[in-house]
Amino acid sequence: MVAVDAGADAIGFVFAESVRRVSAQHAAGISAHVPQRVKKVAVMMHPSNDEWQKVRTSFQPDVLQTDLADFDYLEVPEGIEKWPVMREGAMPAGDALPEIFVYEGRASGSGETVNWQLAAQLAKRGKMILAGGLSIANVPAAIKQVAPFGVDVSSGVESAPGKKESTRIQAFINAVRAAGSAIEEEKV
Questions:
Q1: I need a surface site. Which of 10, 130, 151, 160 has the fewest CB within 10 A?
Q2: 11 Cβ neighbours under 8 A, 6+ residues apart
Q3: What would the pLDDT profile of 1-18 be if each residue is shown by its tens digit?
Q4: pTM of the model
């Protein structure tokens, strides 16, 4: 698996309506040899609890990523991390943010880049995984400006919608690692 070999910390499997959608059985087959150090993420959007339970039992993810409000009704057992999706322009009222969260544009999977200045402020308040419109070309600047806990990419490593390209995956992860190293060197 290219992403694992390139050093990815997590791999998302999309179960929401998308050109990237896979079945739980297909995801389980693909991820059967993913080492334990790499988190398997079930990426969903407003699933029913029944849909989620079918994915959970067939795929056995380490993480569920879905909208914040979805966690109000989904039964997520202990041991499965929750990564709520927070969207620019639709943040919850008040100052409280989840400990870890995905921050993206208004529409999931659209490749829409968020306002990095606003994202930088939110990243100071929790472990933000920055998503939306990231690519090999802009991820170093995004990391430098936002200082997120992590980054998420999909269309930025595709040759066509839903078609990941191994050289782009490797180049993206290399760019992320280099940007992280540069930040660490600046701290010294």
A1: 160
A2: 1, 3, 4, 31, 34, 38, 39, 40, 41
A3: 789 999 999 999 999 988
A4: 0.91
